[in-house]
Amino acid sequence: MSRPTTPEPTMRAVSQDRAGAPGVLKVIETARPRPGRGEILVRVRAAGVNPADWKTRERGMFATGATPPFTLGFDVAGVVEAVGAGVTLFRPGDEVFGMPRFPHPAGAYAEYVSAPARHFAPRPRGLDAVQAGALPLAALTAWQALVDTAHVRAGQRVLIHAAAGGVGHLALQIAKARGAYVVATAGPAKHDLLRSLGADEVVDYRTQDVAESVHDVDVVLDGIGGANWSRSVRTLRPGGILVSLLPFDDSFPVAQAEAAGVRAVFMLVEPDHQGLCEIGALVEDGRLRVVVDAVFPLERAAEAHRMGETGRTAGKIVLAVAPDAGRP
Q1: 144 and 126 co-located in one domain
Q2: Would you say 19 and 72 are in contact if contact means Cβ atoms under 8 Å apart?
């Protein structure tokens, strides 16, 4: 007589079976992943929402060209549920945060995620899961652009475009923590926020031409692209660097940059255990604060995307996957 089989454990996840508008996002019941060798299984408490999420939803996975169905989400904050063979970094019960598998989605819009252990770090003390879920992609992007790529140091002048956005508001604080003088661009409604985060100068991009009002900059962080590249080059002093978060295309002023004696690079963020640890240390030291604009439950992921696509948010949007995500 055969024994009854034990049902495979399942979980809730947000999936899409086609590319398109936010309405394609639906909550489904699906198999719970298992951690492989060198991986951990994380019970997700919160998942950050990023522009890469809604671009992937609308166009498909930019890294692989894969088409739906798939589950979105790059930012994870949660609790280690189980560890795979060979993992020594974490144990079940540890609180972690990370940006695993990027540029492939981690599948963070779900109750569980499995991924390489070293794509995570301990959740910074003093942060709840919602705040920790807002950090990884945006903070790692800012850290890798300013510290690993531009090598920002004390006394330098740093220009940060869209400084009230997810990456921008964290980049501003990281640059200040490194001793830089920071010029930040944003609409007037966000100027007080930027000053509270440490901006030395704030430029209203709607009424001021940054190329005319900002000069002798050592580093520009640009996540806008297009005509903004040319304006950014004009603000740089010889030897300065423009770090673009968007790939260069035919609109990039190559000749202008060369004539100005500046460098221009495109940077794509990578999973980074050590970078997450450095970011966590800044948080614990009180030198880095993540701004969370709005929190939505998992089943309202489409609404979170609609809000993000307006481009009017300050800081980050987060999905609270677990009901207690906003508690330490």
Answers
A1: no
A2: no
